[in-house]
Design goal:
The complex is a heterodimer of chains A (126) and B (107). With 126 residues, chain A is mainly β. Chain A contains no helices and 11 strands. In chain A, strands 2, 4, 5, 6, 9, 10 and 11 form a 7-stranded mixed β-sheet that branches. Chain B has no helices and 11 strands. In chain B, the strands form 2 sheets. In chain B, strands 2, 4, 5, 6, 9, 10 and 11 form a 7-stranded mixed β-sheet that branches. In chain B, strand 4 and strand 5 form a beta hairpin. Chain B starts with a strand and ends with a strand. The model of chain B has no long low-confidence stretch (mean pLDDT 97). The chains are: A mainly beta (126), B mainly beta (107). At the A-B interface, strand 5, strand 9 and strand 10 of A face strand 4, strand 5 and strand 10 of B.
Chain lengths: 126, 107
C-alpha cells in the first residue's frame, strides 16, 4: 500500500499549479484521501478530504476557496490545485489515506491517516 | 472548530527516559484522537488511533490514554530513533485539527 506524490514545484506568484497523489496496493475508491499542509518549520494543517468513489469533498474553512481538491478514480489519483499561487502557499504538501474503523455498537467510525505520501514541496517566488 | 493544545512544545530527554506528552481538546471529542510521529525530512507516521490503539508495527513502548478532552502519549523507554516531533489530531469532527506539536530532543 502506498501513495506516490508528484515532484517538487517552483512557481511564480499568480501561476497555476496542480499536484498529484497516486495510490496503489489497495482499493483506491474505498478510502478518503486527505491533504495536509506543512509550512517550513511549522506544524500540520488539514486542508480537506475527498472520497474517490463519488468525488464528495470537504474543505477546511481555512482553505475553502483557495484550493481545489479533485480525483480521477480511473487513475487512482487525487489532485490538489491552485489557480493563482501566492508566496504564502510555499510549503510541503502531503496526501494521506484516511482509514475508517467501525466503532463497536454504533454506526460511527474512527478515522485516522494511516498511509502518507512522501510530500510535494511547492515553492512560490518571484 | 475544535482546538487542540499540546504540551510541552518541546522537551529534552535521555535515552531510557519515560516521556509524556499531553494533548487537550477544546471540547469533548470522546476518544476520537490520533497521534503521529514525524522525523525531519519525512512524512508523518501514525502511532496511535482511537486514543489508545497501537498502529500495527509500532513498538509497544508507545502508548496512548485519555478520553473526553485530555489525552496522553507515553514513551516508556525513549530510544535514539524516537527523537522526533509528535502531533495529536482530533477525528471527532470536520475540520480535522492537529495540535501544535511536541519536539522531543536529545538531552
Amino acid at each position: 500500500v502506498q501513495l506516490v506524490q508528484s515532484g517538487a514545484e517552483v512557481k511564480k506568484p499568480g501561476e497555476s499549479l496542480k499536484i498529484s497523489c497516486s495510490g496503489s496496493g489497495y482499493r483506491f475508491s474505498n478510502h478518503w484521501i486527505a491533504w495536509v499542509r506543512q509550512m517550513p518549520g511549522k506544524g500540520l494543517e488539514w486542508m480537506g478530504i475527498i472520497w474517490p468513489g463519488d468525488s464528495d469533498t470537504r474543505y477546511s474553512p481555512s482553505f475553502q476557496g483557495h484550493v481545489n481538491i479533485s480525483v480521477d478514480k480511473s487513475l487512482s489519483t487525487a489532485f490538489l490545485q491552485w489557480s493563482s499561487l501566492k508566496a504564502s502557499d510555499s510549503a510541503m504538501y502531503y496526501c494521506a489515506r484516511r482509514m475508517g474503523m467501525a466503532v463497536p455498537g454504533t454506526r460511527d467510525y474512527y478515522y485516522y491517516m494511516d498511509v502518507w505520501g512522501e510530500g510535494t514541496t511547492v515553492t512560490v517566488s518571484s | 472548530d475544535i482546538q487542540m493544545t499540546q504540551s510541552p512544545s518541546s522537551l529534552s530527554a535521555s535515552v531510557g527516559d519515560r516521556v509524556t506528552i499531553t494533548c487537550r481538546a477544546s471540547q469533548n471529542i470522546r476518544n476520537y484522537l490520533n497521534w503521529y510521529q514525524q522525523k525531519p525530512g519525512n512524512a508523518p507516521k501514525l502511532l496511535i488511533y482511537a486514543a489508545v490503539s497501537l498502529q500495527s508495527g509500532v513498538p509497544s513502548r508507545f502508548s496512548g490514554s485519555g478520553s473526553g478532552t485530555d489525552f496522553t502519549l507515553t514513551i516508556t523507554s525513549l530510544q535514539p530513533e524516537d527523537f522526533a516531533a509528535y502531533f495529536c489530531q482530533q477525528s471527532h469532527s470536520i475540520p480535522l485539527t492537529f495540535g501544535g506539536g511536541t519536539k522531543v530532543q536529545i538531552k
